[in-house]
Amino acid sequence: MKIYRKIIWTTLFVGICIVVVSMYFSNLHVNEMKDLYGVLPKSDFETYLRGMLPQNNFSQTELERDYHFDAEGADVMVFLHMQKTGGTSLGRHLVRNLDLHKPCICTKKKKRCDCLTKKNTIWLFSRYSTGWACGLHADWTELKECVEDAMNRKEGFTRKRRYYFISIFRDPVKRFLSEWKHVRRGATWKTAELKCSGRSATLEEVPFCYKDESWRGVSLDDFLNCPNNLARNRQTRMLANLSKINCYNKTGMSEVERDEKMLASAKENLLDLSFFGITEFQRYTQKLFEYTFSLKFINDFVQFNVTRSDQTKITEEQKRKILDVNRLDIKLYQYAKDLFFQRVREMKRRTKDYNPIVDHIVANTFDDSSDYAFSEDQDQEYEDDY
Ligand SMILES: *[C@@H]1O[C@H](CO)[C@@H](O)[C@H](O)[C@H]1NC(C)=O
Ligand SMILES: *[C@@H]1O[C@H](CO)[C@@H](O)[C@H](O)[C@H]1NC(C)=O
Ligand SMILES: *[C@@H]1O[C@H](CO)[C@@H](O)[C@H](O)[C@H]1NC(C)=O
Ligand SMILES: *[C@@H]1O[C@H](CO)[C@@H](O)[C@H](O)[C@H]1NC(C)=O
C-alpha cells in the first residue's frame, strides 16, 4: 500500500513539474512570437536595441508612392546626400545605371555627367550631375532654400519644375563609425556652408572640434566626446527644417525641446520625401525606387557582404556612448526603416510577390556582429567626398 502511495505522489509531483515547465516555455514561445511580429509596445530606441521594428500607423497615401517620373516634362529629381550613408553608390547608379531614353553622358576623365533632356533641361540635381550646386553635402534646409535658384542658374532660364526629393539612410552606429574613420583619415567637410535662414552658421555656433588643419588621427573617444561634432545625429539634423529651431543658435531653447522639435521635423520631412532608400537593403532600395518612379536600372544593385575582418573593435562603453550621442538618429532610423518596409510590403502586395513571414524576418535582421554594411574597401571609395 505504502509503495503505491509513493508512486502516486511521485507521479503527481513530476506531472505538476512538467505542467509548470511547459507552461513557462509556451509562455516564452508566445512572447517570442510577439517579438517576431513586433506587437509588444516599446520605444523606438528600445526596438533598435532589440533588433526589432516599431509599428507605426502610416496612412495609405504615405505607403503608396506611384509617380511616373517624366524627365522630359517638368520633373526634376533632387538627391539629398548625407555623409557616409552610402549616397555615393546610389548617386552613381542614378547617373550611370538608369535605363533612360536619353541617358546621362559621362566621360572618363570627368567625375560629373550631363543629365539632360531632349530639350537640354536638367532632370537630376546631384553631386554627379550638377555638382554641389547648393554647397558641399547640402542638407534639407539648404536645398529647399537654394535648389530653385541654382536650377535657374544652371539652365540659364526659369521654367515650371516639379521637384522630387530623394535620399538614403544608414544604420546610425555604422554611419557614425564610418564618419569617424573618414575623419581620422583627414576628411573635414569644413567647406560645408551650414546655411539656414539665409546665412551660414558662425564659428561661435558651431566651433571646430580640432585646432589644426584637420582632425587626422583622432581617437574614437575624442571623436565621441566633442559636443559640437556634426557627426552626432547627422541624419536627423540634415533632414530637419532647421529654421524651426533657430538654426544653429542654441541659446533660445532647451536641449530637450530642440531635440524634440528637430526629430519631429525630420520625421515630417521624411514622409514628404518622394523616395528614400536604406543602405543596408540595397536590393529593396533598387526595387522600391523603380516601382516609385516607374524607372528601371540596367544592372541590379549589389548587396555587400560583411566579413568578420571588416569589423571595428569597440568596447561596450564606446558602443553605449555612440548610441547615446546618436539617440535622435536611432529613432529616426527606426521610423524610416519601418516606413521603408511597410512600403516594400505594399509594393510586393501589389506586384503579387508578398510573403509576410519572409518580409518580417528580413526587416528585423539586426546583425550585431557586423559593424559595416560596406567593407572597408567600399568605405574608402568615399574618400573623395570632401
Ligand atoms: C491607425 O490609424 C487608423 C486611421 O487613422 C485608425 O483607425 C486606427 O485605430 C489606428 N491604429 C492604431 C493601432 O493606432
Ligand atoms: C521651415 O520652417 C520655417 C519656420 O517654421 C518656415 O517658415 C518654412 O516655410 C519652412 N520651410 C519649408 C521649406 O517648409
Ligand atoms: C541667438 O538667439 C538669441 C535669442 O533666441 C538671440 O538673443 C541671440 O542674439 C542669437 N545669437 C546669434 C549669434 O544670433
Ligand atoms: C554575398 O553572399 C551571397 C550568399 O553567400 C552571395 O550569393 C553573393 O554573391 C555575395 N555578394 C557579394 C557582393 O559578394
From TrEMBL:
Q: Does the keyword Glycoprotein apply?
A: yes
Q: Which UniProt keywords apply?
A: Glycoprotein, Membrane, Signal-anchor, Transferase, Transmembrane, Transmembrane helix
Q: What SUPFAM superfamilies does the database record attribute to this sequence?
A: P-loop containing nucleoside triphosphate hydrolases
**Role, per record:** 6-O-sulfation enzyme which catalyzes the transfer of sulfate from 3'-phosphoadenosine 5'-phosphosulfate (PAPS) to position 6 of the N-sulfoglucosamine residue (GlcNS) of heparan sulfate.
What are the record's GO terms for cellular component?
membrane
Identify the taxonomic lineage of the organism of origin. Eukaryota, Metazoa, Spiralia, Lophotrochozoa, Mollusca
InterPro entries in the cross-refs:
Heparan_SO4-6-sulfoTrfase, P-loop_NTPase, Sulfotransferase
Its Enzyme Commission number?
A: 2.8.2.-
State the organism of origin: Sinanodonta woodiana (Chinese pond mussel)
Can you say what this protein is called?
A: Heparan-sulfate 6-O-sulfotransferase
Membrane-crossing ranges are 7-25
Q: Name one GO molecular function term.
A: transferase activity
What protein family is recorded? Answer: Belongs to the sulfotransferase 6 family.
**Membrane topology, record value:** Single-pass type II membrane protein
Enzyme class comes to transferase
State its location(s). Answer: Membrane
Q: Which reaction does it catalyse?
A: alpha-D-glucosaminyl-[heparan sulfate](n) + 3'-phosphoadenylyl sulfate = 6-sulfo-alpha-D-glucosaminyl-[heparan sulfate](n) + adenosine 3',5'-bisphosphate + H(+)
Where is it mainly found? membrane
